[in-house]
Amino acid sequence: MKYEALNPKSEIYSILIIGLFSFTLVVLFLLFPVKQVSAALPTFVGCSASAVGNAAAITPTLPASIQTNDILLLFLETANQAITIPTPNGGTWTQVTDSPQGTGTAGGTTATRLTMFWSRYNGTQGNPTTSDSGDHQLGTICAFRGVITSGDPWDVTSGNIDATSDNSLSATGDTTTVADTFVVVASALMDDAQNFGATWTNVDFANITVQQNVTTTAGNDARLGVVTGQKASIGSYAATTNTLTANSVKGMMTIALKPISGTFYRSSAYVISQTFDTNAVNGVGYASLIWGGIKPTGTNVKIQLATSNCANGATNVPICNSGAWGTGGSDYYADNGITCAITNYYTPAPNVLQKINKCNSQFNNKRYFRYKIILEANSGLDKTPQVDDIFIVWIP
Fold first, then answer.
1. In terms of pTM, does the model score above 0.85?
2. Which end of the chain is less crowded, N or C, counting CB atoms within 10 A of the terminal residue's CB?
3. CA of 266: how far to CAs of 6, 67, 153, 298, 379, in Å?
């Protein structure tokens, strides 16, 4: 059996050719897990297309392209006034440890408060709506992928305020206990007239990136900033610093998102079989296929066939020196019940017979064949299908 670029570790236990009345079945027993790889740093997906600022309750929008188990962080700025999420709209929102961080007289012009909530996206929840804190509220949601899929999504968090109105920002660091954390740094400023400087600094982070910088002119005005950095090694990380363009009091937090622990599966892998000879000089009619194994919820098994009258996949019998398996007339095909195409796949459940009835002109009257199996893990990368055997049925 030939394995391509995403090959999993696999073994063929036996190959049997069995005659059954007028049918012939090729039975291939194999153990085919999608190969596990080491844990990787979580990644940034995106933030709300636009932040929401208002003197009344707000409804920040979920980022685009989010997937089940992505971690959503909701960043809220108020004039040091308490804010909640009374309308979660199908989600579960929990305040992050060390939140909130506020300073100044509640509702005053020199006050700010940073409040952070988190949610693990369930695939169906909608945009949450906050309470009305008083003077104003400014909010944005950012999404992150590859974070642990149960429990609190962080390894450590930190928070601090700076009650002095100056242009020096310093968000307190912390000490991680696991490798490959993705650290999110957030800061709230008291007015939209103040801005963050272009350069954020942390000697312990790689790839420091500004992900969001938004304002509101509602009430006493405000600004929110979100920055991320990568911390590959276990241990302490220093304060994250920035020089503002104007003086402000500040509320600041960091949250070190924890990667999926141990190992996880590749998102997909495929295997291409060896070439099988039906020994029928005039070719055969390919009737159906069936496979056995395990297909956990959220995973997928996709199958295609390629046929040829040349053992090497060429298309010019009997010379057989033009073309090859996987190209031109010997490409891998499947039908969707209507049309036969290289973009279609057979996706039957385990032990369910799949008829081959729309690729007759492509497959039939061909002596040799190969199959291609694609395995796809679930979105959390913690489940994978397993193919134990596949039966290809043809009629001489």
1. no
2. C
3. 9, 16, 21, 14, 10
